[in-house]
Amino acid sequence: MPTNFTAGPVRVRVPATSANLGPGFDALGLALGLYDDVAAEVSSGGVRVTVTGQGAGELPDDDRHLVVRAMRAAFDVLGAHPAGLSVECVNRIPQARGLGSSSAAIVAGVLLARALVTDGEQRLDDSDALRLAAEIEGHPDNVAPCLLGGFTLAWSESTGAQAVSLPVAEGVRPTVFVPAERGFTATARAALPATVPHGDAAFTAGRAALLVHALTADPTLLLPATADRLHQDYRAAGMPGTSSLVSGLRLAGVAAVVSGAGPTVLAFDEPPAGFPVGTDWQIWQLPIDVSGARVARGRLGHAERDPVAAGRKS
């Protein structure tokens, strides 16, 4: 049966995410109110990608772009083969900082491809979209909150990734500290040992369970709940500024963690007045995104094309 494509463009807004949240390595994630807007439509031939904002002039403008690669993967699942694609990206999520820029691109690509196929949602439902996005990314901890919004718990079965989203308790006020330097997930993962002591694994499992309770019911427990012995200490030597800021915030009573693979720091509250953050960090207060990725018909409007980071307060 031939594939029918929708007429005209579709667009998607995808949120930034923070994964791990301390002890929840490769499992826990949080969607944040900082967004990339991406639009795409089927063209008569070739691939053209334009990028505004974060990554402009650096990211590829052809089939190598991660949004296009994710679209191609989804089109393969759908058995669809468009003659060409035109993609417009307005990026506000910093690249390679631990705020889920790659997951946002992957989720955007999967959802755009699905929306461009007339019966795409029937042939690739939300569960399928999550599994495909996690397969492309390699782990589900960022793609899950990007797709679902809120605070997510993700895991993998033999059939692929699965996730649930839970509401976050009132009083949780995420603040991110974003440095100028970049970090890369592959480098951060290479710093991890093949095995960890049983006591450290048991400690971290208990804190991960406590974190679910703290984020959904009792934020007063966030400081002990975000303690980790599984990955952050092993990565500290490669991110000394990040490690120092996390330690300083925690000593000041703020529940702070490395955001994803870093080097951004995520705190679950504002630092106390007079805390010496230094000048090397951009500090943004971000709301929790509760909706996840949102798809609509039509081109990007004036508001979506504004590259200023919507949703953040500095």
Automatic annotation (TrEMBL):
Annotated positions binding ATP: P94, Q95, A96, R97, G98, L99, G100, S101, S102, S103, A104
Localization (cell): Cytoplasm
Similarity remark: Belongs to the GHMP kinase family. Homoserine kinase subfamily.
Reactions listed under catalytic activity: L-homoserine + ATP = O-phospho-L-homoserine + ADP + H(+)
Enzymatic class: transferase
InterPro entries: GHMP_kinase_C_sf, GHMP_kinase_N_dom, GHMP_knse_ATP-bd_CS, Homoserine_kinase, Ribosomal_Su5_D2-typ_SF, Ribsml_uS5_D2-typ_fold_subgr
Protein's UniProt name: Homoserine kinase
Ranges where the GHMP kinase N-terminal domain occurs: 66-150
PANTHER family: HOMOSERINE KINASE, HOMOSERINE/4-DIPHOSPHOCYTIDYL-2-C-METHYL-D-ERYTHRITOL KINASE
Any one GO MF annotation of this record: homoserine kinase activity
Keywords noted in UniProt: Amino-acid biosynthesis, ATP-binding, Cytoplasm, Kinase, Nucleotide-binding, Threonine biosynthesis, Transferase
UniProt EC number: 2.7.1.39
Pathway: Amino-acid biosynthesis; L-threonine biosynthesis; L-threonine from L-aspartate: step 4/5
Gene responsible for this protein: thrB
Free-text function comment from the UniProt entry: Catalyzes the ATP-dependent phosphorylation of L-homoserine to L-homoserine phosphate.
